[in-house]
Structure formats: C-alpha cells, structure tokens
Amino acid sequence: MKNIIRIILLAILALPSVALAQQLYVGAAKRVTTPDTEWLPLSGVARSNLIAVIDDIYVRVIAVSNGDTPSLIVTFDAGGPPDAETFLTGLSEHTGIPVEEIYYGATHGHTSPSVIVNPDVPSTELYVNFVYDQMIDAADEAIRNLQPAKVGIGYTESYINVNRQRFYELDDGGEVGAQGYNPTGPSNKTLSVIRFSDMADDPIAFIVHYSMHLTSMYANRLTDDGTGISGDVGGQVSRHLENKFEGAIANWIPGTAGNQNPILSNEYFTPNPETGEQEIQMMNRAVVELMEFYGKIQFADVLTALGNIEEESSDARISFAKGLSSLPPYDPSTQEDAIIGLSLMRIGDIALVGTGGELFNEIGMYMQDHSLLEHTLVSNQVRTYVEGDKQPISGYQPNDHAMIHDGWHTNNRRYAIGSVEGGYTNLMNDLIKSTNQN
C-alpha cells in the first residue's frame, strides 16, 4: 500500500509503558427525530416522497469517558449522518468535545427524511433545525447520565441478510450484473452486540452491529401517494431492546453492507423466466409485517449474543485515531490515486472502525479477519475525516470480484484491482497501533 498521508492521533500523546487502570463511565439518551406531519412531504433516499409516518425515528447518543472529557457515539435513523459542517461542528462547540472524539454515523435507513435544507421546500429548514436541537438535547442528557460502567461484547449469527450482487444470464447467452438475490454470494452473518452496564449489572446502552442495508421498507406504498417513514429493521431491533431493558439506549449500526440486502424487501428482484433479465416488483402494503418479522428474528438473535458475553470489564481506556491513505488508481492514465479514510474509536480491546462510503461486505470481512484486535467492528456511513483534510472517496466501494466481472455498482471505479482489501486493512492496523494501550 502507498504511503500514509496523515494520521491524526487523538489518544494521549505519551502512554506509559504499563497501562494504568481506566475506569469506564457511560451515559446514554435518545430523542425522536420524526418530522411533524405538517412538514410533509419530505424527500428521502433515492428520491422517496415521504408523506406519512409508520413508526418513529430517533437520534441516539452514547457518552463514554475515563473520568475526564467525555466522548460521544452518535447514531441517526437516517440515510447518512447530517451535514458535518453544521451538525458535528455545532455539537463539538456546544459540548466542548473535539470533533475527532465524536463517532458520528447513521443507520443508512432508506425510509427516513434527508436532513438537508432544500430552498424550494421551506419545511426542510424546519426539519433540519428540529433534528439539530434533538441531537443537542440527547448529547446533553447522555453526558449528564455518565456513571461508572463496564463493557462486554458477544456474538452470534443472524440469517436475515443476503448478498445482492447477482449476474443475470440472458437468453442471448450474455450476462449482466444487477441487484438481486444471490444466496451463494459472500455474506457476513455475524451479529455483534456491545453491552454497557452499570456496576449493578443493569444495561445502560447497547451497540448492535450487522451488515445489512435497511431497505426492507424501501419505496413502500402504504398509500397511493407516497412512502411511509420508518426506522426499518434497525429501528425495530432498537425498540425491542429499549422496551425490554427500560431506560437503556440501543444504537443499531450498519456493517459493511454495500452489497447486502434483507433476504426480501418491499422492492425485490427476480430473473424473468423467459428472457433472464432483471424484474423489479413491489410488495407495498404487506411490507410492515415483513419488517416486523425481521425485527423479531434479529431481536431474538441479539438476546443470544448477549448471552454469549463471557466477561465485562470496567477497565477500558478510550482512545481515537483518524487517518487517510492512498490506493493506486484504477486507470493511471486518467485518474489520480484514490484517497481512503477511516475513523477509529477504541474502548479497551474493542475497536469501532468507521468508513464514510458503502464498502462491499467482502472488504469489511477481510478487515475484521486481519485486524490486530479480535473485537473489531467495521461500519459504513461514519464521518471519517475532519475539515481541511483531503476528502476520501465515498459512495459504493466494490471488491475485486465485482469489478472484474462488471458487477452492479462498479461503474465508478477509483482504485486498482488488488488494492482495496489490503489498503483499508493496513490503514486500520496503523490506526490501531497508534492507540496502543499497553
């Protein structure tokens, strides 16, 4: 991999040779970000016309500290985290927490309004201001709620996702890559659950990590006029956890799900029996039951993962690093090196690694398999750079196989074949080394 362009160390600059015990403190809070019905319609991911509310959406904040200035894990039920220049900078200025110490991401839900001001739609400014205020309120409460805590992580498998990179064999003998159902394609079934508990063993907060697009409700038509707002499967899982453990907050965060869908969504894809071409169909009014089914299945899986937590520790040093690196271009004659970025938040021996784009699942699986830390969760839709840095690539980032075979979402090729898995992994491990806690 080419040279590291920049690594911003956000941990203590000079760590002692023998790590001192670091008591963990945790607080959490959430606020509703469902728009007032008077502000509808609003637009969402892929130009959805959002005209009604199916279930509430939220911003959830977990504050963590070693007894000094806290750090934050912020997750929006949204297609992506809101504009960093306004939201993240404002949150930093309000709380006094450096931007680099805020792990700032979204569930990548496809039935949530865009948190972007549209000058042609006055209600969007009302909605953006509302979400901002709700984020600030949640952060303030999470910080007020800080208390001595311990952390543990458990794993299981959850079988509600599928690879969506399909190659359709046409009747003329050719094939074309498009979205579809590919049960034999690589798909990470691992469900990871972090639990933060108080010293009496009562849960304070959870982080649920799973590689799946929140698209079971995508483009639903519960009315003839448009789409209903929903937190989708991630929202269902969070709601079940928060109902079971009263007072706890549950952040559902997406793994590297660039090519991972629910097994079946409102919008689904099949090959035409006669031509072999892709067909696109909609479930529409049956989709709420489908979402609830997935939510109940994965909630049961979450309980299994929680039962698999072997130990919890109150000694967990918190440290951070962000970094940029470069990959050789796909076409050296017309392209410059591709800049990639990662954000890392480390809580003891657990690493939360964030990417700003949509990495294909194979890349994230490779990163986690080759991480220097056993407990490494790689996620899409996380802000990975600070103002002034050269911007890393975003959008879909396919693996080698998809590019070689002209798969779906591989038309915007930025990096050379053979570079992406190792490039991201090397950058991640450099960041982990920079937060060495021994």
Describe this structure in words.
This protein has 438 residues and is an alpha+beta fold. The protein has 2 domains: 4-17 and 319-434, no CATH class; 24-307, no CATH class. The chain is 22% helix and 32% strand. The protein is built from 7 helices and 23 strands. The strands form 6 sheets. The chain has an 8-stranded mixed β-sheet with strand order 7-6-5-2-8-11-12-14. A 5-stranded mixed β-sheet has the order 1-18-19-20-22. A 3-stranded mixed β-sheet has the order 3-4-13, with no helix packed on it. Strand 19 (338-347) and strand 20 form a beta hairpin. Helix 3 (232-244) packs across helix 4 (287-307). The two termini are 27 Å apart.
Distance between the termini: 27 Å
Beta-strand fraction estimate: 25-35%
Q: Number of helix segments?
A: 7
**SSE string, helix = H, strand = E?**
EEEEEEHEHEEEEEEHEEEEHEEEEHEEHH
Task: Give me the secondary-structure category.
Answer: alpha+beta
Which radius of gyration do the C-alpha atoms yield?
Answer: 21 Å
What is the number of strand segments?
23
Domain count, please report it: 2
Q: Percentage of helical residues?
A: 10-25%
Major sheet: size, sense and barrel closure? 8 strands, mixed
**Morphology:** globular
Describe the strand arrangement of the main beta sheet, using strand numbers: 7-6-5-2-8-11-12-14
Overall pLDDT confidence: 92
Which spans of ≥5 residues are poorly predicted at pLDDT below 50? 1-19
What oligomeric state best describes the polypeptide chains here?
single chain
